Amino acid sequence: MRLxxxxxxxxxRHALGLRGRNFIEAPWAGGVVLVVCVLIAMLLANLSLxxxxxxxxxxxxxxxxxxxxxxxxxxxxxxxxxxETFVNDxxxxxxxxxxxxxxxxxxxxGQLSSVRRAILPVLAAAGGMLAPAVIFTLFNHGxxxxxxxxxxxxxxxxxxxxIMSILGDRVPVSLKIFLTALxxxxxxxxxxxxxxxYGGKVQLDLLLLAVAIMVVVYFMNKMGEKRxxxxxxxxxxxxxxxxxSGVHSTISGVAMAMLIPMEPRYRxxxxxxxxxxxxxxxxxxxxxxxxxxxxxxxxxRRMSHLTANxxxxxYRLENALSPYVTFLIMPIFAxxxxxxxxxSLEYINIFHYSAEIGSVGMGVFFGLLIGKPxxxxxxxxxxxxxxxxxxxxxxxxxxxxxVACLGGIGFTMSLFVDSLAYTDPxxxxxxxxxxxxxxxxxxxxxxxLILFISRxxxxx
Length: 460
Hints:
The chain is mainly α and 460 residues long. The protein has helices spanning 2-25, 29-46, 51-58, 83-109, 115-140, 157-167, 173-197, 204-222, 229-245, 250-257, 268-283, 294-308, 313-337, 360-385, 397-406, 412-421, 425-459, and strands at 64-67, 74-77. Helix content is 70%, strand content 2%.
């Protein structure tokens, strides 16, 4: 009986682990985790038992302070760091580093690797950034909220791709590729917006020092250096210099990602020759049990090292970091940034407007729900009609517009820009509420439109 119970326990643990792996590998899993974290953050920020603890935790100081007994030395690093800034200025650097690796991969080998393939998603992304910015400005020009024009310009790739995966074959594969490439180009545009318009007062000496280090890393790459330590240590130093220079520190993640080598340390010919030799030596190392013995472990470690270094460092880092970014860093970001204390119904009234502060709610909500799809669709229509680009295979204009509606899911990058655009907590919170409402509305509208168009196409 005890053996049977143990067998059932092992089977249940195995099944649980298998379901866990299947969930993690599902393209919609990251979006589900983010939604759960948003709901938790909203509860923590509004329940009377937790809201004070939630705010106090985010404001907890994380700086390292070193003082001498006489007070002659008083060193603080990083200066002004609390839990909230740690999430936004440290953890999000890893997020932006991973985004940079994805952008580089797409530019070198992916959908942005040639002008002909890149022109449609790049122009669509540009239109999808310009139109929301114009709509936001129409509502907020000349008001205290005017600086938030960049908030509705971003697309959250995790949510958009996750929803298309749930919808299955109702969306042509070519349009899934189109939206993925568009989201990557959109991320690049958002990064440029943050770097150019949402930085602080720049200290040129620190910025120039960071640039000098990146130049050294660039030449190391060109000379064939493939050891990871020579890239990750400079990346940490460059982050510190950016953090104090006035250019937002997350930009350092993207900049360093562009310098990571994509070429493997070992070529195909060397790999096959060396692996064959190691396999022969492994088989000659004895047949006694248990396997592996000490000598066999040595050859297995060499084979593992050889295999790892036959994959480009950029690919290895992207593959290693992506699960942590999706299931750890982005959920933590949502927990730290999505918690808005709703003190009155006025907070969730996106139509609130005043001559002094404008209307962050209407600017963000309509920018995401209307501006993004219109900008993406009109830019795509113009590119195809003018002959600059080709329509994605198997797609039509109705389905392209429906997919463009999913581009209105801003969320992660929009929340990040919102935290940079304003210093007034009231404007920041109004922006967060509008982002959540606009992203949900875009997701629902885009999904329903795709379902309607696909059913109509099947009937015809």
